[in-house]
Amino acid sequence: MITKYFSKVVVKFNPFGKEAKTARLLLSSIPPAQRLQGTQIQSEILHASSSKTPIVKITYKDKKEMELDPSTVTFQELASYFDRHSRQLKLKESIENS
Questions:
Q1: Superkingdom, according to UniProt (predicted)?
Q2: Which residue, 1, 12, 20, 25, could crosslink 75 as a Cys pair with Cβ 3.0–4.6 Å?
Q3: Taking the complete model, does pTM exceed 0.85, yes or no?
Q4: CATH code where residue 18 lies
C-alpha cells in the first residue's frame, strides 16, 4: 500500500466488529517514520451500541479526500481503492521530477 501521499488518516471502527481486521491492518501499514513526517492519524473506537458507522477516510497531500466503509471490503480491496489515487500522485511526481 502506498502511504507516502497521505496527509491525514481517520479510522473509526468497533474492535469486535468485522471491520476491525481491515482497520487495524490499515493503521499498521503506515510506517512510523511517516507519522513523524507530519501524517495525522486519528482513530476512534466505536462501541457496539454506537450509532456512528465505521469509516476509513484518507486525505491526500493534494487535498483530495476518499472514504470507505471497512466492514464491506477486505484489506486488499481497501488498499487497491486508496492506491489508485496514490499511483496517480506518484506518476505526477515522477513527471515533474523528470
A1: Eukaryota
A2: 25
A3: yes
A4: 3.40.30.10
What domain count does the chain have? Answer: 1
Q: What is the dihedral of CA 51, 20, 1, 9, to 10 degrees?
A: 40
Alpha carbon separation from 62 to 28, 46, 92 (Å, rounded): 23, 29, 11
In a domain, 1, yes or no: no
Residue 11's SS3 state is: strand
Whether residue 31 is contained in a domain is answered as: yes
For residue range 30-52, what is the model confidence (pLDDT) as tens digits?
A: 999 998 888 999 999 999 888 99
| Largest Cα–Cα separation, the chain | 53
